Records
---
Amino acid sequence: MSSHKPASDRITVPKFVAMKRDGKKISMLTAYDHTMAQLLDEAGVDSILVGDSLSMVVQGHDTTLPVTLDEMIYHAKMVARAVHRALVIVDLPFPSFHLGVYSAIESAGRILKETGAQAVKLEGGVEQAEVIAGLVSAGIPVMAHVGLRPQLVMQMGGYKVQRDEEQLLADALAAQNAGAFGMVLECVPRSAAAKISAELTIPTIGIGAGAGCDGQVLVVNDMLGLTGGYVPKFVKAYADLRGQITTAARQYCEEVRGGAFPADEHSFK
Ligand SMILES: Nc1nc(=O)c2c([nH]1)NC[C@@H]1CN(c3ccc(C(=O)N[C@@H](CCC(=O)O)C(=O)O)cc3)CN21
Ligand SMILES: CC(C)C(=O)C(=O)O
Ligand SMILES: [Mg+2]
């Protein structure tokens, strides 16, 4: 299916960055497949993240560590095929950027070549500055991810609010200086997030980081009320799709069992 929208509608990396300068808040949501990406793009979401959260949300793992680069690429292809306006960003999974700049370019290069996405995201600030700079010098737009970094869950022993302001600012500045075009700020006190956002020229996209960020991101399953297990405190439920899907599926089962479905209009003469 070809797009009828002019190419000028597309949110490119420079347009994404300009939204901060223009004082426009940036909306971002995750998506992992074609249907959801199409819905979000048509709803006008500015950016769609193919997050490694798909390890938990789609694949049912306990952490984001198991998802592979090949699996990220598989999902990113479905998403990018559906999206005409939003900036599509793909998470570099653990440990596809930890073996040095060379391996990071190999991983991120595959994402850009094979999926149709426009940028990658990686967890890290100060300690990933060299990798960010290497990717940028290869022409690959990089979003950083500072604060709570779910790929460090084994070291942290859980998902906790990150309160070391000095470290947070150092990470954010290192990512910006290395050439990142934006960054996610995850699970940091809102005062720290606001201070960092004011300090930086590139946009900050908050998740559990308060209203002072330049944009917001949520895991789409969480905000739609689709997540079955634990949902973090920073999530707002904009729908109850679990309830609606359960009701619909129950009704279907009843109607099949009782013979009410299919009616004549759902079959052929
Ligand atoms: N469905 C889903 N939504 C997410 O937002 C998400 C994932 N999965 N998986 C990867 C990470 C993990 N995330 C999480 C998970 C839990 C907390 C959490 O429990 N936070 C505590 C703070 C506890 C503390 O600081 O001691 C909270 O009370 O919300 C935060 C972020 C965010 N990401
Ligand atoms: C929640 C966002 C920021 C993320 O990294 C993910 O979905 O993996
Ligand atoms: Mg992620």
---
Amino acid sequence: MNDIRVKICGLSRAEDVAACAEAGAAYGGFVFFPKSPRAVTPEQARALALEAPVGLAKVALVVNADDALLDAVTATVPLDMLQLHGSETPERVTEVRARYGLPVMKAVGVATEDDLPKLGLYAQVADQLLIDAKPAPGAELPGGNGLSFDWRLIAGRRWPRPWMLAGGLTPENVGEAIRMTGAAQVDVSSGVESAPGVKDAGRIADFIAAAKADPVPRL
Ligand SMILES: O=C(O)c1ccccc1N[C@@H]1O[C@H](COP(=O)(O)O)[C@@H](O)[C@H]1O
């Protein structure tokens, strides 16, 4: 077994939190984006976060959130990290880190080689990077679409911050994704669901077991 750290995103029921804890997830994500089928209110997330064991880091995912939303989320939910999953600028990342005193993970969408310089840019201001597939033009959601990118684009590349691989990961392909990219952390949402927004405990366990199964080449 390796020491890959897994984030399960889009938790909305107590049994999802229990499944993550049972299977050994390192992070659990709550989505504060109304268009998402996984969206929760700050009060719902608070109740879920209070159920989480100490070892499960609680992450709030927001998309181009203003201070009013972030104030409400951070005042209500006990959190370990903020995930900015919209088109937040490097300046906004810096502002959010300073205002809330929480580590910030910035999601960057990748489709082609041209998207890679943004990773270096955000590595200068964020605590962690989340490397996700770039959504199709006009997509309703900027993430959580079950869409992968070409993992060869980041094979062998490194950044001066911890980073997570995301986008279209499933129990079936996560081992291959880790082998190709050398990721030490992976993030999944729709790949461990039985229907949009409905997490499946069996798929969560299968995903984490598959992610942790092989020795990881640190490229
Ligand atoms: O999960 C969502 O609903 C979501 C909504 C808005 C922005 C991001 C969202 N999810 C994040 O996207 C990645 C990839 O999702 P998937 O595994 O391809 O379905 C996921 O890990 C979340 O961090």
---
Amino acid sequence: MSQLLEIENATLKFGGVVAVNDLSFSVKEGEVYAIVGPNGAGKSTVFNLISRFYDPYAGALRFDGQNLLARSADAVADLGIARTFQNIELFDHATVLQNLLVGRHRHRRTNMVQEMLFTPKVRREEERHRAAVEDVIDFLDLQPYRDKMIAGLPYGVRKVVELGRALASGPRLLLLDEPASGLSVEETQDMRWWIDDIRKQMGITVLMVEHDMGLVSGVSDRVLALADGAKLAEGTPAQVQSDPAVIEAYLGTGVV
Ligand SMILES: Nc1ncnc2c1ncn2[C@@H]1O[C@H](COP(=O)(O)OP(=O)(O)OP(=O)(O)O)[C@@H](O)[C@H]1O
């Protein structure tokens, strides 16, 4: 498997706080790779670096061999990197279908005049986007909710819709920020199947930050344990969970 994402000696400081400290890791095409670590370890900051919300103080970031640092946040999405957020970010007063169509935004190839005139090209594009979104709705069993407003939906369903919005963009790399947080045991189990299927059926590479070690062990090929912004351990879930440095660092946090 080739490397899809490479982080090389990345460092990011907020004032005097070193949030990410000379961190290197890579994610192979087709794998599920999880980042774990106690609160404040730097997990979200790593995601924000990859999404290009932050510039690193030093280091290199590459996606499929291309320099990510030469691109803006929008351009990163165009490369095929999609993400979900720890605090779900959806349009509350729009339907599930409308939110998923927003996920298709990067594929729009028509201009505003064409859209106002609703030319045949616009109509064909629209049909293509709808078909892609309907596939995601079927895949995630969202049919009962497709015309419902986000605001009225239970938290667990909103979480699946957010996953759907990211999938609708047709990514090569999916960044999941705490996919199981706030979910019940059953919903977490469903999330595990979705992630498995996303990798196996859709061939999408997944990088996730997650506290639930049951989910991490269940779906991940490899795990990176972070502490104070630096790599503590990397390996299979079993290797990382039994690593003495990890046990020592997490002792009493209830994470491992
Ligand atoms: N925008 C910011 N400004 C200043 N400091 C920040 C900012 N974002 C993060 N930090 C600091 O950087 C460090 C890493 O934070 P980060 O949010 O990446 O950790 P995390 O591992 O994602 O934690 P959690 O599990 O609580 O989400 C922490 O010390 C945090 O206080």
